[in-house]
Design brief:
disordered N terminus, 234 residues, elongated, membrane, mainly alpha, transmembrane, 6 helices, 0% strand, transmembrane helix
């Protein structure tokens, strides 16, 4: 069982940190580097989320492109697409296959969110080292950095934040593709209630993967800590 240690917060720090190997004149440079690091972390997070979302949308658009290509080359009769029973089996297979393929960027999106949130936490923990001293030196100006100093923030599991909403919408779309493809392949009757139940179950499986990786997995095995530094993450 992992040993828990008290978490360090800004309130727990001493009022002065004169023992730091940093001169007062270097604090402006330090905070500018801090701002740049935080900015780059969030830029990278935004870029990664956009890339994975675009990749998912590209994969999910592939069945439509394949259907248009087959219909334009007269391989299938466009009128057959108006009836569930007349749709060729290989179109259902294509829908199911690309629904499954889009699970990969879905999982990568979860990992990207986790990685960037933990990097932001590391920056917050680093900021604790100098924030009190920084406040002392700039109090005359009435200015303090508008940056968090809590190493437990931001939370990796935040379903109502934009990354969480992005993940859950992809879960719903992926579940819809897989459900339609599999039900079409097995020749099931396209009942609305059946489709809703299957899509809901598949979306829950996706959501469970997000919940476990972003929330429960916080109680993960920690790396080696030969110097016995206290762990300040949740």
């Amino acid at each position: 069982m992992r040993k828990t240690v008290p978490r360090k917060t800004a309130e727990a720090l001493p009022e002065r940190l004169d023992g730091l190997p940093v001169e007062p004149r270097e604090f402006v440079q330090l905070v500018s580097v801090d701002f740049a690091g935080t900015y780059n972390v969030y830029l990278a997070a935004k870029d990664e989320r956009l890339k994975m979302t675009r990749l998912s949308m590209s994969l999910l658009a592939a069945p439509f492109a394949a259907t248009i290509a087959l219909a334009s080359t007269k391989v299938i009769d466009p009128a057959a697409l108006a009836s569930w029973d007349r749709v060729p089996w290989y179109l259902f297979a294509v829908v199911a296959a690309f629904g499954l393929l889009s699970v990969l960027p879905f999982l990568r999106l979860i990992e990207a969110v986790n990685a960037h949130m933990r990097t932001a936490r590391a920056l917050n923990n680093f900021r604790l080292l100098y924030v009190v001293q920084l406040k002392d030196h700039f109090s005359a100006l009435g200015w303090t950095p508008n940056l968090p100093v809590d190493p437990r923030y931001p939370e990796t599991y935040a379903p109502l934040a934009w990354p969480g909403i992005n993940v859950m919408m992809l879960a719903l779309v992926n579940g819809s593709y897989i459900a339609v493809g599999v039900l079409g392949l097995v020749g099931a009757d396209p009942d609305a209630a059946l489709l809703a139940v299957v899509i809901g179950l598949l979306a829950l499986v996706h959501y469970f993967a997000y919940y476990v990786r972003a929330n429960v997995s916080r109680q993960r095995r920690l790396p080696q800590n030969p110097f016995h530094f206290p762990n300040v993450e949740t």
